[in-house]
Amino acid sequence: MTEHSLWRFSRALHRAINERHTDDLAAVIDDNVEWAVFGPIDMFPFLGTRRGKDEVLDVCRQIADNVRVHRFERESMMLGDESGAAMMRYSLTALDSNRPISLRLAQFASFKNGLLTSMRVVVDTFDLVEQTLGHPIHLPKIA
Amino acid sequence: MTEHSLWRFSRALHRAINERHTDDLAAVIDDNVEWAVFGPIDMFPFLGTRRGKDEVLDVCRQIADNVRVHRFERESMMLGDESGAAMMRYSLTALDSNRPISLRLAQFASFKNGLLTSMRVVVDTFDLVEQTLGHPIHLPKIA
């Protein structure tokens, strides 16, 4: 039984972020990959949409400039033949402030012949913003 | 071929929200369901974790007090035998302000004998907060 493409991609991504080594990542991404991590791009320019392998490798280098991954845990998980979805909790460090960040996100990945063709990620962005700022944002109660 | 439990749950949930009719929803939820919609509960008291059918029905009534669902689209989708994950985009109206809200979220659902036993939802919460406030929150650029 061969390893699922999602595990290979995930390992290559974490290596690209923590070791700034993108060769493994380049080997598991389709040339025409579609990539979207939804979130406030004014604050985090490395979020947003990218198209094609070069743009995705470039944005992963930008992510590597900004965070280090300490731990991650998959809280929910589904695997298909050439797809995978996971709800994950990451423990990160923001490199500029040296601040710990605990991040929850959901990723949906599609593969073709083992190569990533699509990645879409939803992040609990308000929590991310508050942790990055280092203080809560005052919100009115609406309900 | 019988309908997937996720479709039946989804239809019952939308009916509960838009028509304030929770009988269908009660019929598809396990007594010991675990429920978590991650987000700022100070602003949105109907987010957060709930446990058991009564608490989940109650929180769905609170959601119904606050929003109406106009449209939803599943942008990514995975189905297992007794599980399902979806990345969705909702068009809502916030009832107190009559303001339109466009919301992206990811849901992971598990079922047992057709009944919902677990639901975990990640929401693009910063976008939700800004739309609910009706104005952008100023953010510094960090990268």
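qc> Chain A is about 30% helix and 45% strand.
qc> done
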